[in-house]
């Protein structure tokens, strides 16, 4: 009988799969549990927020519309996890008691127009029907009909609500629907990590959307350590992560932003690195190496979701940082850092916007955008201080200009 696979001629004493095989013992027992998409049933240090949101939403269980809530706080502070957790619990409870409460979670990053949001809502409410191509008015009527017919309390979570392009119209539509339904009601929960967004809301939109508000503060190192220890227990095999590695990941994340996503990602990547090296334990070294990787991943995702004009602004900043000669102080000493002045950045931004056929925003908005980029940690600013001409602000990119330029070149210029 002939072999299915021809007899191999040995070329070396060690099979090439040997090294892969010896490394296949996984340090993870449940990778999912340390992924940033995972929502644990327990969300420590968020008891107050869970309590307040559930208390507010409990009105829906007795057939009343609850107050609309606006949740805000920096990235990775648990806004999405907490809200999804509370919504799931609410729906489970209502189902058990046979109460007409429904709930939907929508991420406005994926549904950034009123029409898309309304279509998504009715597609979820009428799973058998298709609404593609129907007018906005038709879709809106279907929503009002569904709520009225079922006399249901519908809770709509609009996550990353700052990504909505026509927010005023969306909020207006959803609040007006409450006046048109003949039974039931619609409660909104808006979520944003943009701390400036709330200030900028149109007063009417603000009074509709922000009937209650809640802030999610950053986690400190101690809290992050507890959160990580919990996740490590589920995700990794026993004794496969050194305590000091967990502490280091918590300290890095607390230092950067108090962001649990960064903390979780650091240990996840560190675990992968340790596995690739065939180590038995995740140590500080892997966390240090993971830090660079995770930072890059976070910046890439942050930069790609910025609004267009902030991308143009960041692109201009990166270009200037790369092309400008080091600034000399009046003392004649070149400064150590390649600093940029607010005025020159605005000029560069305007000419870049024109090149991209986008009308530049006013200098007032430009200053707001710089503050927003600073809030996201993408730039840092200081008053020009002594030694530099004029009384301008100095702006510095928070990350390697070349990386930012390369990414934005692709995003903006295609
Ligand atoms: N209290 C907590 N306990 C355990 N894990 C948490 C806690 N808070 C956040 N996390 C974890 O951190 C990650 C990010 O959390 P989440 O997505 O809720 O943040 P967010 O505030 O919505 O951030 P963003 O503004 O960027 O959307 C998730 O992996 C989540 O599981
Ligand atoms: Mg979120």
From TrEMBL:
Single GO MF descriptor: ATP hydrolysis activity
Binding-site positions, ATP: 77-81, 219, 231
Pfam families named among the record's database cross-references: AAA_22 (PF13401), Cdc6_lid (PF22703), WHD_Cdc6 (PF09079)
Any one GO biological process: DNA replication
Domain of life: Archaea
Residues in AAA+ ATPase domain copies: 65-220
InterPro entries assigned to the protein according to its UniProt record, in alphabetical order: AAA+_ATPase (IPR003593), AAA_22 (IPR049945), Cdc6_C (IPR015163), Cdc6_lid (IPR055237), ORC1/CDC6 (IPR050311), Orc1/Cdc6_arc (IPR014277), P-loop_NTPase (IPR027417), WH-like_DNA-bd_sf (IPR036388)
Keywords: ATP-binding, DNA replication, Nucleotide-binding
Domain Cdc6 C-terminal: 314-408
Coiled-coil regions listed: none
Biological function: Involved in regulation of DNA replication.
Family: Belongs to the CDC6/cdc18 family.
PANTHER family in the record: CELL DIVISION CONTROL PROTEIN 6 HOMOLOG, CELL DIVISION CONTROL PROTEIN 6-RELATED
Protein name, as recorded: ORC1-type DNA replication protein
Organism field: Candidatus Iainarchaeum sp
Lineage of the organism: Archaea, Candidatus Iainarchaeota, Candidatus Iainarchaeia, Candidatus Iainarchaeales, Candidatus Iainarchaeaceae
